[in-house]
Specification:
The structure holds 2 protein chains of 2 kinds.
Chain A (H helix, E strand, L loop, with lengths): L1 E5 L2 E3 L21 E3 L1 H17 L3 E8 L1 H14 L3 E6 L6 H13 L7 E5 L10 H9 L2 E12 L2 E7 L5 E7 L2 E5 L11 H7 L4 E4 L13 E7 L8 E2 L4 H14 L5
Parallel strand pairs in A: 1-4, 1-6, 4-5, 5-11, 6-10, 7-10
Antiparallel strand pairs in A: 2-3, 7-8, 8-9
Chain B lengths: L2 E4 L2 E2 L2 E2 L1 H12 L4 E6 L3 H9 L3 E7 L9 H15 L3 E5 L2 H13 L4 E5 L1 E5 L2 E8 L4 E7 L5 E5 L16 E4 L8 E8 L13 E5 L9 H11 L2 E4 L1 H5 L20 E5 L5 H7 L4 E6 L12 E4 L2 H16 L1
The chains are: A alpha/beta, B alpha/beta.
Chain lengths: 259, 320
């Protein structure tokens, strides 16, 4: 079986975001980068499928500047993935171009794809689009926001969470991109032996040129970054509880006008 | 230059988010095509005419009863191509967010989801979207995009007064066959009949200060009075007190209600990121130094087990 996991490196959720001097992006100085949290579920699910299937190879793929993305690849390898591919680029990417690069990088590998796992979205640009673009570029099925997954003999069942806890249950025969939601599994921690082994696992490098992709084919770009407007200071409501709640309801109705 | 507006409907009614987008498209003066899937679509298309749509592609057939990404994407792409539209607007719902990136792949174009601001300027859509879960915002600029596709969060744009129903040219969306063997076997209805957190106008949210899962009943009571949806912090979702689908924050749902009431939530940065788009924030917490207060409009320092029931009674009295 051939399994791919696509991951992204993102600023840690605790990171304070500052803008660069001309507001064309964020100031990356001092940012702690982590593997996108949803991608951890993707890696874990791939490992669980491999455990059941026995004969399977997991390749973890990412697109971005090698110097900061390589850590997440090593983390995935330490968790148990077999090898890694990085499309090393400093170019501004968007979901379209990222998915093109991932699709071409995957097509360059040996055997046909059985499964591709991704996170449901990356917590930086919150786009949730790469998985579907990727499925389209690979001409295979897809399911996003997947919180339950089963695979047996070339047929998969995936449950996707939608509004109000409703679940859509898909059956797909053949390959598919599965975008993992929180709750799909509990990602394992990399063990110390895992971390040692990961250092020796193969990590292949590709460039956009190698894949025949031109960075100027980007479809969407973020410009004119801004920080949220400062909120007026909080009004603390004083007094006995009865006074506090009375005053709150009055203010919500008359001052904030949200009731 | 025309627009396609993806119109979602429920129980025969156009959803508010779709009416917002039709209203926006109408302000541009360009022609509007409504795109609808599901039983009753042709009928609902008439409602779209009241907001300026003159053409509709309606997918009434049985194949469109249950959402199936590959079938919907191929069929939507064909309809959009036929319409000749340069712009597509949809609400950032679970279906649209899943569907349109795939459609964008088929149309070789760009898509921006979860946008909060939208203008039409110089023949281009300019949308803003929150990044890093709301820690900053940026404008989305399209290039190399034959169809500029923007998915807007609901409750961001005004709905115009509906006009009279006018003639609308309703065309049936043809089911485009695909080689991909994907079927939607079943839809399991969720237990909650409440509006989803991401679309909710009022949210009552609980954190570790709720002490245990059973105490969320208290928030349900408050929410019932306000017609609100109940959310939670990561700590309590991880503790299993509530399902993950209720989690607000950077690794949960990003929300933007008019009113957000945080009960016993201290305000970790990853939670604040997910709810800072709320118009008015009320915090109830025992700890006067809890970071949540700095992000709030109104704060009550106190025992939430005393405050919340009283607040429920007060709202009940005020809203009746």
């Amino acid at each position: 079986m051939r399994i791919f996991v696509c991951i992204k490196q993102v600023p840690d959720t605790e990171t304070k975001i500052k803008l660069n001097s001309d507001n064309s992006g964020i100031d990356e100085a001092g940012i702690k980068w982590i593997m996108n949290p949803y991608d951890e579920y993707a890696v874990e699910e791939a490992l669980q499928v491999k455990q059941k299937a026995g004969d399977a190879k997991i390749t973890v793929v990412t697109v971005g500047p090698k110097k900061r993305c390589v850590d997440s690849l090593r983390t995935a390898l330490a968790m148990g993935a077999d090898d890694a591919v990085i499309v090393d680029t400093d170019a501004a990417m968007d979901p379209y171009l990222t998915a093109k690069a991932l699709a071409e990088a995957i097509k360059k590998q040996d055997t046909p794809v059985d499964l591709v796992f991704t996170g449901k979205l990356a917590i930086d640009d919150n786009a949730g689009a790469v998985s579907q673009y990727l499925a389209e570029f690979l001409s295979i099925g897809h399911a996003t926001v997947v919180s339950s997954f089963e695979y047996a003999e070339g047929k998969l069942t995936a449950e996707r969470e939608t509004e109000g806890g409703t679940r859509e249950v898909y059956e797909i025969e053949g390959a598919a991109v599965i975008a993992a939601n929180k709750g799909l599994n509990t990602p394992r921690y990399a063990s110390l032996p895992g971390i040692m082994k990961a250092k020796k696992k193969p990590l292949a490098e590709l460039s956009l040129d190698d894949l025949g992709i031109a960075a100027d084919q980007i479809k969407t770009k973020f410009v004119n970054f801004e920080l949220p407007a400062e909120k007026p200071p909080v009004q603390m409501l004083e007094g006995e509880v009865a006074d506090q709640v009375k005053s709150l309801v009055t203010k919500l109705r008359e001052e904030a006008k949200v009731l | 230059m025309s627009f396609v507006v993806f119109c979602e409907h429920q129980n025969g009614e156009l959803k508010k988010g779709s009416r917002e987008l039709l209203s926006f498209a109408a302000t541009t003066g360009e022609s509007i095509t409504a795109l609808l899937f599901g039983p009753g679509s042709s009928e609902v298309a008439k409602q779209a005419s009241r907001y300026g749509a003159s053409i509709a592609f309606a997918g009434d057939s049985a194949e469109f009863e249950k959402y199936n990404p590959v079938v919907f994407a191929a069929s939507a792409s064909a309809a959009i191509k036929e319409s000749g539209a340069k712009f597509l607007l949809a609400s950032s719902t679970m279906m649209a967010k899943d569907l349109f990136p795939r459609v964008a792949g088929q149309l070789d174009t760009g898509v921006a989801s979860d946008c909060t601001d939208l203008v039409f300027e110089g023949g281009n859509l300019k949308a803003k979207k929150p990044l890093y879960a709301g820690k900053c915002k940026a404008e989305v600029e399209f290039s190399n995009s034959p169809v500029q596709m923007v998915l807007m969060r609901p409750n961001q744009l005004p709905v115009a007064d509906a006009g009279d129903e006018s003639a609308i040219d309703v065309k049936a969306i043809e089911v485009v066959a695909t080689e991909i063997k994907q079927i939607t076997k079943e839809i399991k209805q969720g237990a909650s009949d409440k509006v989803d957190l991401t679309e909710a106008n009022v949210i009552v949210s609980g954190g570790r200060g709720m002490k245990e899962a059973d105490n969320f009943k208290m928030l349900d009571d408050l929410a019932d009075v306000l017609g609100a949806t109940v959310g939670a912090s990561r700590a309590v979702a991880d503790a299993g007190w509530v399902p993950h689908s209720m989690q607000v924050g950077q690794t949960g749902k990003t929300v933007a209600p008019s009113l957000y009431i945080a009960c016993g939530i201290s305000g970790a940065i990853q939670h604040l990121a997910g709810m800072s788009g709320s118009k008015v924030i009320v915090a109830i917490n025992q700890d006067p130094d809890a970071p949540i207060f700095a992000k709030s409009s109104y704060g009550i320092v106190g025992d939430l087990f005393e405050v919340v029931p009283k607040l429920t009674e007060e709202f009940k009295a005020a809203l009746n």
